Amino acid sequence: MLTTSATPASAATGSHITGTASGRCLDVIGQSTADGAGINIYDCNSQTNQAWTLTSAGELRVYDSPKCLDVAKGATTPGATLQIWTCNGGTNQQWKVNSNGTITGVQSGLCLDVVGGATANSTLVGLWTCNGGSNQQWKTTAGDTQPPTVPGNPRVSNLVCDSVTFAWNASSDNTGVAFYDVYHDGQLMKSVSGTTLSTSLTVVPGVNWGLYVNARDAAGNVSQASSTVAITPPQCQVDTQPPTTPGNLAGTVSGTTVSLSWSASSDNVAVKYYDVYRGSTKAGTVTANGTTPPATTFIDSGLSANTTYPYYVVARDAQANVSGHSNTVSVKTGAACGSAVCAVTQIATDTDIPWGLATLPDGTILYTRRDAHDIVHLNPATGAKTTVGTVPNVDETDGEGGLLGLAVSPTYASDHWLYIMHTSPTDNRIVRIKLDNDKLTLSSEQILLTGILRNKFHNGGRLRFGPDGKLYASTGDAQNGDNAQNKNSLNGKILRLNPDGSVPSDNPFGNYAWSYGHRNPQGLAFDSQGRLWEQEFGNAIMDETNLITKGGNYGWPACEGTSGTCGTSGYIAPKRTYVTADGSCSGISVVRDVLYVACERGTRMYREVISGSSLTDVQTYFNGTYGRLRTVEPAPDGGLWLTTSNNGDKDSIPNNSNEKLFHVALG
Fold first, then answer.
1. What are phi and psi for residue 87, nearest 5 degrees?
2. Domains contained in the chain, CATH given
3. Rama region for 178: left / alpha / beta (φ>0; ψ in -120 to 50; rest)
């Protein structure tokens, strides 16, 4: 943020002024401190020639000298040259930072302008007639760190099959609201001006959405989200005709895994789903992706050995018209598991959402309950559960905040520390608490890191100790993409901490940030080489799996997966992407250098072999079998723990779920 001061401030207190069009910083050419040194834009860095301080006199000061941003020779005409000069109180050294992102000279009334609208390094900056161009817009806070108030009374009208009108009451802000950002379920739909309080949205027939809005000021401060308005648009036309019956169902077996295939159904509108039944039990669902029909294959894993299973398939359309049953095929499994994924055993259920999960040295499990704010100790062998305590000061966000990540100290046998990430009433934070005699010792709580911005969605939350003994944490952008590119922000990052909460001396930027440019990362896992893999939610196009590099920039919000300006130099491309309909993946785990990815909207688990720095031999398991999958963790026997997140996932209401915890045996 741009610092304000009544007196000259040192460079250490100064901050970047970033061009909206270029993403580059207002920069004194050549780091010169001499009177008359020119001004350009350049890649943002930590040098003092980009550290600006706005004083109460309206000066933009740089360096310790002090030097002021100055209009050469006091010119007041378009094209006037900018420079630095010893501060002298002249009106040609006074500036006004405006709520629309422009910076105007007090003497001339002209705007700070990147010459020719160029965006390249070393492009000069001068004065020009204000014209609303993005080359005249700058991201500063002018000392403004106060977010707008929450937009009030969100409401809908004119709901039809493909559109709805969404309206809200105005927010207030100390400098003025510049934008409103409209979301559904964490996905940005539209941004409108700060004077707009109603907008038309495109919706999908028959799909349940939760609409809400955030306010944003010119400084980039984002309000907390409004309350959520649930909508279910009607179908555009009445459809009572079911799809035709799937045909030619056939099955093959490999150990305890069955592979099925069938002929496609047709429909007067479109086939959206195939439901696969194992006897009278639904084994899974294959779902269409937009206008692409659903696949006509299904893999059923984790079955009992030497057992005969009958299968049939039905087709469904968007209005729940169901076809007749396909032919039934019976398949007998082999004597032993012959595939990568073997038996699946349900070990527990829960009425809340299991989020963070960790294994204790004795092989039992601890898991957090996101909306209930407590931690459960589970013996997977017996199913016995004990609540070890409620974590203090946890708050909800009416969305996806709450009690999140959990990690067990690498030296737990001697220190009994549990590391926890959670939402508080003011922020997201990381704490540690001792577990003694199966109870949280609340008096032992230590708050290790605060100030991670919170919002309804995009809170990140995963914790993982690395082989280096450091604690890694994933943080979301708090629904403000600017946070992800600000290396001094804790949001939109992978953070790296010493176990006592201090900053490791070898972190790349001298703070907690290990990598940046992330939207909403929730999966962290290390492979046998000690490399960190990360799973991240995209907005509406694609999700991504990344191999994390120290100090790396992963591109958000300029790029999403491989979409956008992801080819730009300096952005690290993902190792794999997933269309959001097949993804929305949260947790990941590595077992024997195979990456397992648990997906929510995609209702599946991916198995991906790590080969060098690539992910190969990608296979899909449990496609619709158990619904939305949230967390996957290594089990001590070489298998996996796997949890669901099917009900109450976006409302922060405790104990309104019906979730399952599984053990997955691997071949």
1. -60, 130
2. 3-139 (2.80.10.50), 152-231 (2.60.40.10), 247-332 (2.60.40.10), 341-666 (2.120.10.30)
3. alpha
CB neighbours of 505 closer than 8 A, spacing ≥ 6? none
Q: For residues 188-201, give the mean pLDDT.
A: 93
The burial class, CB within 10 Å (0-12 / 13-18 / 19+), for 165 is middle
Map tokens 């310790």 to a residue: 64
Which pair of structure tokens corresponds to residue 274?
A: 């195939």
* C-beta of residue 149 within 8 angstroms of C-beta of residue 171: yes
Q: For residue 424, how far is the Cα from the chain centroid? A: 18
Position with higher pLDDT, 367 vs 144: 367
Active-site entry in 184, 377, 422, 458:
458
161, 359, 379, 532, 642 from 385: Cα distances, Å: 46, 14, 7, 32, 17
Distance between CA 528 and CA 467 in Å, rounded?
9
How far apart, in whole angstroms, are the C-alpha atoms of residue 531 and residue 518? 18
pLDDT at 23: 85
373 is known as an active-site residue: no
pLDDT tens-digit map of 608-646: 999 999 999 999 999 999 999 999 999 999 999 999 999
The distance of Cα 282 from the centroid of its chain, to the nearest Å, equals: 32
pTM metric for this prediction: 0.78
Contact assessment for residue 370 and residue 353, using Cβ atoms and an 8 Å cutoff: yes
Half-sphere exposure at residue 32, Cβ-oriented, CA atoms within 13 angstroms: 15
CA angle in degrees (0–180, nearest 5) for 83-84-88: 120
**How far is residue 539's CA from residue 168's CA, in Å, rounded to a whole number?**
23
Instruction: Tell me the C-alpha distance between 348 and 647, whole Å.
Output: 16
Count Cβ atoms within 10 A of the Cβ of residue 281 and give its class: 0-12 exposed, 13-18 middle, 19 or more buried.
Answer: exposed
Instruction: Write down the residue that tokens 């779902």 correspond to.
Output: 287
